[in-house]
Amino acid sequence: MLEELAQYWMAKQNYDKAEASCWEALDLLEAKDEPILRARLYRMLGRIAERTGSVKLARNYYRLSLHLFRGLRAAGEVEETTACLAALDAGDTPGGTP
Fold this sequence. Notes:
The protein is mainly α.
């Protein structure tokens, strides 16, 4: 649910609230085994960082997300995150889809 809330705030371009929602969700996930959701939240943090001009931070979040997805063998998620990282490196439109 917090992932959806973060997506909502991203769509509204309220990146502070979106980021706070991601971190709150990650805190709640500490005690749960939800690696896919954790990796998605890091990818979302990458999108937020990218949209706010923090390219280096965005790259770090995308790489962390990619590392987690590869460990899970989540091919579709790896592809999406790789595309985010490639677009960032190419200087394309910030953040991809929310």
